[in-house]
Amino acid sequence: MPRNRTDEVLPAGRRPVGRRVWDLPTRVFHWALVVLVLTSYLTGEFWRGVDMQWHKLSGYAILALVLFRLAWGFVGTRHARFQDFLRPPGQTLSYLGGLISGRNSSYAGHNPLGGLSVLLLLLLLLVQAGSGLFASDDIFIEGPLAGLVPGVTVDWMTGVHHLAFDLLVALIALHLAAVAFYEAVKGQRLIRAMVTGNKQIGEAGAEATPNVPSAGFRGLLSMVLSAAAVAALVLGLPAWTD
Ligand code: HEM
Ligand code: HEM
User: How close is the Cα of 210 to the center of ligand 1, in Å?
Assistant: First the structure.
């Protein structure tokens, strides 16, 4: 049995125990991402302003968040680590089979399908924000790195920026449907866990699932370093290559 797995079916007479499974930085990351993706959509489609400065700022913030989360996948607390939730394809497929037949274990962290969707969301957000750096509307607005590459690359990146957004909308819709399914059908309180950090875990599994630390300071440091990397990229690179 993988060390982070906990039994879904509680042994008779045993009560679930509350455990902190999501550290503070992971939760702040998630809800900040939700607000910023919405902001990027609104400022990309409707409120473009004079030079889309809010769109760009919110895009940089998303880029910093994604860099943070990729690093946090290695240095974060137990269930935030990639090692905890990225499974081999065979295991992910058999989890999917179990979901259909109704025989599955629940996980303290992300289940194998959830873990896969986390990785896809992060990669897609990276492509979305990364392509934005090189995108242009051919009139007034361009990303900070568009001047560093040939026009044909700018056109290509602008196309990628549009396509990535369509894919992102589809993946977010799937994400929300999956969360609603676990909440409504499986009775798992995933949203509350992403807010408070705590999940109810079967007594048997709870023994193997200690509370994760809050990790606020480590998280803040990682976020500051990620923001500095983005600032160096969008401010430093164009100035340096001038
Ligand atoms: C812009 C929209 C959204 C994006 C891009 C997004 C992205 C993500 C990502 C990347 C994770 C992984 C968290 C981590 O491990 O760091 C996640 C998890 C999660 N998200 Fe979202 N999310 C969005 C909207 C929402 C909304 C609106 C809700 C709730 C109503 C929600 C509920 C959850 C829950 C419950 C999890 C944890 C799933 C689990 O326990 O495996 N998300 N989301
Ligand atoms: C994940 C973050 C981002 C999201 C979700 C996003 C989304 C969008 C959307 C929906 C549009 C409108 C596309 C259309 O005209 O239909 C757009 C356009 C644009 N975005 Fe982003 N964007 C993000 C990040 C960025 C970043 C970081 C930059 C650059 C700093 C950027 C630069 C641009 C530019 C220059 C356009 C205009 C392109 C055109 O009109 O053809 N975006 N973006």
Answer: 23
Provide the residue-wise pLDDT of the chain in tens; the chain has 242 residues: 344 444 444 444 467 899 999 999 999 999 999 999 999 999 999 988 878 999 999 999 999 999 999 999 999 999 999 999 999 999 999 999 988 887 767 789 999 999 999 999 999 999 999 999 999 998 889 999 999 999 999 999 999 999 999 999 999 999 999 999 999 998 899 999 999 999 998 877 788 899 999 999 999 999 999 999 999 999 998 888 87
Query: What are all long-range contacts of 55-58, with beta carbons under 8 Å and residues at least 24 apart?
Result: 56/132, 56/143, 56/144
Residue 199 three-state SS: strand
- 190 CA closest ligand 1 atom index: 35
Distance 130 CA to ligand 1 centre (A): 21
The helix/strand/coil state of 106 is strand
Break the chain into its structural domains and give their ranges: 23-161+213-240
pTM for the structure as a whole: 0.93
Report the nearest-CA residue for atom 39 of ligand 2. Answer: 137
